[in-house]
Amino acid sequence: MIHPLWHRFPMVYQQLEQIQQRLEHVAVLREPQVHALIQQQINAGGKMLRSGLMLMLARLGNPDNDDLITAGAAIEALHLATLVHDDVLDHADLRRGSDTVSAKSGNREAIYAGDFLFAIYFQLLSEQNPATTDLATNARVMKHIFMGEVDQNGPSAPLIPSVSEYLKAIAGKTAALFALATYTGATIGQLDFTEKKAAYRFGRQLGMAFQMIDDLLDYTQTTATLNKPVLEDLHNGIVTLPLIYAYQNVPEQLAPMVGTAAKIAANSDRIAAIVSEHGLPQARQLATRYTDKAINALAPLPDARIKQELRKLTQQLLQRDH
């Protein structure tokens, strides 16, 4: 099932259906239970935002290229692999309203499943036309993704990072994959060098804003809306942008509750109440700034209806509730 977000883009919707089918076809594991859980996640109604953006960028140039389906499936495989591994690190039980692989089958099986999806990503890359497959950029982005995770979760990562440290982490763990998707669309769509650079910048800035909004929603929405537990980061002792700002603004209120990850988890409800007043407004302001940066990055791209739609979609993602 393709997310309703794409209903107003019939051609993109049809291609996303093909991408989903392609990924279903290649993501076949001999272990029945893990296979079923991966297939469940593929079909769980995720936004497919990264591959959808790839398709939209390609429509600014040449959208009639069979490599788009393969490239979209590769991006979705890479994204899903990172989610499966994230769920292990975050002890998450729900993803897209369904049991995570780690919750259902255990952490070891989830690591295997994530590694398998990384292998699928490389397989799909190898099946694309070499002329439209920038392996160096793909490799660089993968490195950024992993380094972003280490920046956030590594043994030397600060418990309460600065805003700049937070931005560095999400530039890797989230924004890099958005940038890869938009750059890939521009490359396969045969846009020129300047336009491909603009597409990469657009994806990066949009990815930054997207992660900031995700972190905001963890404080403002319900489990039913998000299809996953709320305050999940706090319950895992993870500090994101709203708490960083709140700690800067009222350290005397928060210091007794944030000395360790365990303390953060134990005091999550009290912390959330303070963050709502002293951290959320600034976090939303910064997300709005990055949304504006993403829209401005579209300027060098060809003037077309799809460019206007990209602007609207970027604003819509800022206002989303899940």
Automatic annotation (TrEMBL):
<comment type="similarity">
    <text>Belongs to the FPP/GGPP synthase family.</text>
</comment>
<dbReference type="GO" id="GO:0004659">
    <property type="term" value="F:prenyltransferase activity"/>
</dbReference>
<dbReference type="GO" id="GO:0046872">
    <property type="term" value="F:metal ion binding"/>
</dbReference>
<dbReference type="GO" id="GO:0008299">
    <property type="term" value="P:isoprenoid biosynthetic process"/>
</dbReference>
<dbReference type="InterPro" id="IPR008949">
    <property type="entry name" value="Isoprenoid_synthase_dom_sf"/>
</dbReference>
<protein>
    <submittedName>
        <fullName>Geranylgeranyl pyrophosphate synthase</fullName>
    </submittedName>
</protein>
<keyword id="KW-0460">Magnesium</keyword>
<dbReference type="Pfam" id="PF00348">
    <property type="entry name" value="polyprenyl_synt"/>
</dbReference>
<keyword id="KW-0479">Metal-binding</keyword>
<keyword id="KW-0808">Transferase</keyword>
<dbReference type="InterPro" id="IPR033749">
    <property type="entry name" value="Polyprenyl_synt_CS"/>
</dbReference>
<dbReference type="InterPro" id="IPR000092">
    <property type="entry name" value="Polyprenyl_synt"/>
</dbReference>
